[in-house]
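Hi R.,

Here's the input for the heme C complex you asked about:
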Amino acid sequence: MRLRAVIAVIAGGALLGGAAGCSLEDENADLVAGKTKFIEKCGSCHKLARADTKGTQGPDLDEAFAQAIASGMGRDGVQSAVHDQIITPAKLAKDNKVYMPPKLVTGDDAINVAAYVAEVTSRPGKDTGLLAEAGKKEGGGEPAVARNGVVDIDSTAQLAYETNAARAEPGALTMRSPNPSGTPHNIALEGPGLGSDIVGKVVTDGGVSEIKATVKRGQYKFFCTVEGHREGGMEGTLTVR
Ligand code: HEC
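And here is the predicted structure with heme C in place:
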């Protein structure tokens, strides 16, 4: 069904290949770089098991190619289809609109991302070796400790805060979550004595989501309220003692 797109990309790639000495089916595509970029630029909207991304806005990329691969599409064909989608996202049949921003990655980055997706899509198991280390999920940072009643929990481009653990003393607490990425995030808090959840505003591109609460001894959960983000991993524990 994507044959026309695939052929167009292969033709384009061959032309480029003549000029630049590389082609789309480049054996030397950098899969490690591709995985890292995929997690950064694509993971917030797409599930891909081996990249451990859990976005839900776009189709599940393991399912997307499973049938085509089962019925004989080669991984080089998948690579071309993904590359094509990155540069010129397809319109959805139902309303003829494009939902995926074009050219989130370009040049070598686009080739590497497409190569990585093609390599791992609908493949069971886990990435090994260097690939396993690439783009390790954030969230494992040192616990954030409140100073003078203020604690910073940075958002990242992935569906993760830099740390999933924070500590504070009882009393007035300000939680701040700077978000340097283009993916919208916020911070919210639930737990003992708060009544309803306290929810900070959703920010992007350097904005800071901020909430104020009075906390007492116990455990609270902080999380992002943007749809799918908490489920995707944007949740942590605030321990007050
Ligand atoms: C803002 C959310 C968003 C981001 C970020 C995003 N996508 Fe998408 N993607 C979508 C949506 C929505 C669709 C389906 C509709 C469309 O094609 O526009 C889609 C479709 C796709 C498809 C086609 C799947 C199929 O079923 O045919 C592929 C492949 C794909 N994206 C790959 C990527 C890659 C690679 C990146 C990173 C460079 C990326 N996407 C980033 C939202 C996103």
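One thing worth noting: Helices lie at 3-20, 31-41, 61-70, 75-87, 107-120, 129-133, 229-232.

Cheers,
M.
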